[in-house]
Structure formats: C-alpha cells, structure tokens
Amino acid sequence: MDRPLDHVARIQAEWARERPDLDVGPQGVIGRLHRLAGLLTEQLCLVYRRYGLSEGEFDVLAALRRAGEPFERAPGELAARTMVTTGAMTKRIDRLERNGLVTRRRSAVDGRGRVVALTRAGRELIDQAFTDHMSNERRLLDALPPGEAAHLERLLTSWLGRVEPPPGG
C-alpha cells in the first residue's frame, strides 16, 4: 500500500498540474527541509521556554558559556556568533541583564567598548538548559537510525559548505 502524500508532495503535485512547464523537483528537498526546520524549532523552543528563555536568549547565554572563563564577549562578537544584528542583540542583552543572567561593563582593553558577561545565575541556568537541550536534540535525532543520521550529517555538512559564505566573508 502506498503512503499518502505528505504536505510537500501535495504542493508539488498541484504545481506540476498547474505549471507542467516547470521542474518542481527542488521543492522535494527545500520544502521538506523548511518544514522540518520549523517543526524542530518548535520542539527546541519548548526546552528554552522551560527555562524562561527565548531562542535568541538561549543563543546569547550559550555563546557566553562557550567563550570559557571568564564567560564574556563584546556585544559585536556575540552578534557575530549568534548571527543576529547588533540591534537585536541589544534587546536580548537588556532582557538577560534585567533577569540577572548577564552583566555589562566597560572593556578594560577599549574604554569605549562594552563587555557582556555571564553572572553566576546565568551560568547555572545555561548549564542546566544546555543539558536538557542536548537531551532534546538526541530525542529528536533518534527518530532516525544511527546510520541515516550520520549520512544526513555528512550530506548537510557538504551542502552547507557550498552555500554558506566563508567565515569573515
């Protein structure tokens, strides 16, 4: 028995009917990746919300934690490591600071610059949240057999390497 068409396959069939002159094959990959990304993001955000964080706030805390002792970075560096604008970064930092998870101070290197640092509460929160985040990612990935997951990682790594601009470029 054939499986019913998934959402993307139904869209492809409609476009193929309406525009038989176009190759709608790319939608099979791009459309499914797009849908999967949305569904995965929903599942990831469940963990972030459990800790009172948005996805962006989790990213900021994680970037600070990954920096290692003393768990601080300049706002511009945080923006680059989380792929957001400095304006969006400011809003995230403001909220995290109000919640006692980060502090801001003048840079010792450049008196005009600022440095954002994790507080003790921020470090404890991101350590707990990241532990749960990794368990959640494992749960999501376990929907695939290990060999398929490894193959998918290789394919995505290869494709991303061809599409993503090089660092600093």
Question: Could you explain the architecture of this structure?
Answer:
It is elongated and about 65 Å long. The protein has 169 residues and is mostly helical. It has a single domain, classed as Winged helix-like DNA-binding domain superfamily/Winged helix DNA-binding domain (Arc Repressor Mutant, subunit A). Strands 1-3-2 form a three-stranded antiparallel beta sheet. The longest helix is centred in the first third of the chain and has 25 residues.
Helices and strands in order:
Layout: H1 7-18, H2 26-50, H3 55-66, E1 72-73, H4 75-82, H5 86-98, E2 102-106, E3 114-118, H6 120-141, H7 146-163
Antiparallel strand pairs: 1-3, 2-3
Keywords:
169 residues; mainly alpha; 7% strand; HTH_MarR-typ
Overall shape: elongated
Spans of 5+ residues with little confidence (pLDDT < 50)?
none
CATH class: Mainly Alpha
| CATH level 4 superfamily | Winged helix-like DNA-binding domain superfamily/Winged helix DNA-binding domain
Instruction: Give me the count of strands.
Output: 3
How large is the radius of gyration?
21 Å
CATH architecture annotation name:
Orthogonal Bundle
**Average residue pLDDT:** 92
What is the share of helical residues? 55-70%
Structural class: mainly alpha
**Number of helical stretches of at least 4 residues:** 7
CATH topology: Arc Repressor Mutant, subunit A
Total domain modules: 1
